[in-house]
Amino acid sequence: TLFHALFGVSVIILLILSKICLKLLVMLKCFTKMHGAGNDFIIVEPQFFGLSNYRSKENTFSAEENQIMAPIIKETCRQKFGIGADGVLIVSSLGAGQFKMTVFNSDSSFGLMCGNGLRCVAAYLFDKKGTGNNFVVSTDSGDKAVSVEQRNPKLFWVSTFLGYPNNFKEH
Question: Most buried pick, 4, 6, 24, 102, via CB within 10 A?
């Protein structure tokens, strides 16, 4: 049908645009790549995807925004052909020095929380946004208090309490 043909063309266009965006991303260096305990992440702000930087705590990305971001996330996370990462962490401003972390896995699926990702985002905010040593990062699984200590220009020690496990079963 015409709908399926147009949908197929739009997916192809999105894939081509994602490859172009990836090349521009690498050339412009408008991302940060960090790792925590063996997990590596690409940290970007929403403007990277052409989206508004401001978010409310409850505001997740819309279906339309996810459709824009998905092919770009998949391409950038590809280990041998993209930048390579376990996921993309989007840091949004909540205003007044408050920030939210949104987690996307390498397959572009949404994640509620990532402990190693939170540590990377905390170091990023400390280094790039001047948050100070102790602050709160909002996540989709609640607010997380973090404490950052810079050990040298590229080494950060981040501590946080992630909460207690739920649905825990002993075997």
Answer: 102
Q: How far is Cα 103 from Cα 109, in angstroms, rounded to an integer?
A: 9
Pairing mode of beta strands 142-152, 155-160:
antiparallel
Closest by CA position to 44, among listed 17, 12, 21: 21
Q: How far apart are CA 163 and CA 53, in angstroms?
A: 28
Q: Per the structure block, which two tokens stand in for 157?
A: 């020690």
pLDDT at 27: 43
Q: What torsion, rounded to 10 degrees, do the Cα atoms 118, 124, 125, 128 define?
A: -170
d(CA 147, CA 35): 17
The CA distance from 89 to 32, in Å, is 10
In the numeric block, the tokens 């408008």 are attached to 30
The length of the chain, given as a count of residues: 171
Model confidence over 53-80: pLDDT tens digits?
656 566 677 788 888 888 888 988 988 7
Instruction: Phi first, then psi: give them for residue 132, nearest 5 degrees.
Output: 95, 180
Strand 98-105 to strand 134-139: parallel, antiparallel, or no bridges (unpaired)? Answer: parallel
